Amino acid sequence: MRVSKNWQDYCLIDTADGERLERWGDVVLIRPDPQIIWKCSGTAPEWQGAHAKYNRSSSGGGSWDYRRSLPESWQIKYGGLTFMVKPTGFKHTGLFPEQAVNWDYCSELIRAAERPVNVLNLFAYTGGATLACAKAGASVCHCDAVKGMVDWARTNAKLSGLADKPIRWIVDDAMKFIGREIRRGTRYDGIILDPPSYGRGTNGEMWKLEDSIYELMISVTELLSDKPLFVLLNSYTTGLSPSVMSYLMEMTVGRRFDIEVLSEEIGIPVKQTGMALPCGSTAIARFRV
User: Fold this and answer.
1) Which end of the chain is more exposed for a tag (fewer CB within 10 A), N or C?
2) How far does Cα 59 stand from its chain's mean position?
3) Residue 204: what pLDDT?
């Protein structure tokens, strides 16, 4: 497992009985996590002093139980990046801290290339990978179907001092945008994909990752430049194990290019136990010269 262990403003304090106990800056939150199947009670004292807890509803969704006062939003840092975080209606805070291990990986590849690098970040959310790549020196196209998420990402860019970097901000359906980029002849040296397990298209149609990922990867391959650096695919879907994602990468990107694939779970260290909580998987295709 590749573990995001360089955080200072974020800490996964403890896990127990389907819940995470997390520190986001000075704010402590309790959020549900279905992977935490162990029933043992956490021993960290912060369980009793958390600012808020997200409670799931039996009818779907849920709500926050605010136990102590906290700001509407606040900022946390990772390296030279600054992010606005806040509790949302779907238990999230606007950031997936386990992804920092991928931000670091892509940044290292971009810096080591010592040439102009053009990166596409699809399903880009609030821009963690976008900002990391831009800070490393890449030109980035940030694409997400939700305008509110793109606006949030732009706020993060401003907070990080990256507002003047060459970043294209696109609000669009990923597949439709890919099709237009192919027709325009736009090509990318690096592509990052963080698709949801489930979603709805622009016409309300249901989108399921396992049913769509192969066609998505075939289309993405057409967007690669003649000398690409990497393709990175994230998954939080149980059916897409690291081995399945590696095979998929070889059967799509690997049919056109000579690649090596790193495919592993990613996770976050748990302070109370010294172990790491799995938080999905990533497959990264690196291109041999």
Assistant:
1) C
2) 27
3) 63
Separation of alpha carbons 154 and 275, rounded Å: 34
Weakest mean pLDDT among 40-44, 62-66, 233-237: 40-44
Does an H or E element contain 48, and which? helix 46-49
Which of 109-119 are b and which e, b meaning 16 or more Cβ less than 10 Å from the residue's Cβ? bbeebeeebbb
Q: Show the tokens assigned to 242.
A: 């690291």
Output the pLDDT for position 58: 75
The CA-CA-CA angle for residues 170, 171, 174, to 5°, reads 90
* pLDDT tens-digit readout, 162-201: 999 999 999 999 999 999 999 999 999 999 999 887 666 5
Report yes or no: 32 and 39 within 8 Å, Cβ to Cβ.
Answer: no
Contact, 179 vs 199, CB < 8 A? no
HSE (side-chain half, CA atoms, 13 Å) at 8: 6
User: If we measure between CA atoms, which residue out of 29, 178, 152 comes closest to residue 83?
Assistant: 152
How many Å is the Cα radius of gyration of the chain?
19
Question: Both tokens of residue 277?
Answer: 């909580």
* SS (HEC) of 206-226: EEEHHHHHHHHHHHHHCCECC
117 neighbors 138 (Cβ within 8 angstroms): yes
| Residue owning tokens 């004292």 | 45
8-state DSSP, 173: -
Give the HSE-up count for residue 272: Cα atoms under 13 Å, Cβ half-sphere: 18
Q: Please name the residues in contact with 31: beta carbons below 8 A apart, sequence gap of 6 or more.
A: 19, 20, 22, 53, 54, 91
Question: Model-level pTM?
Answer: 0.94
d(CA 74, CA 28): 12
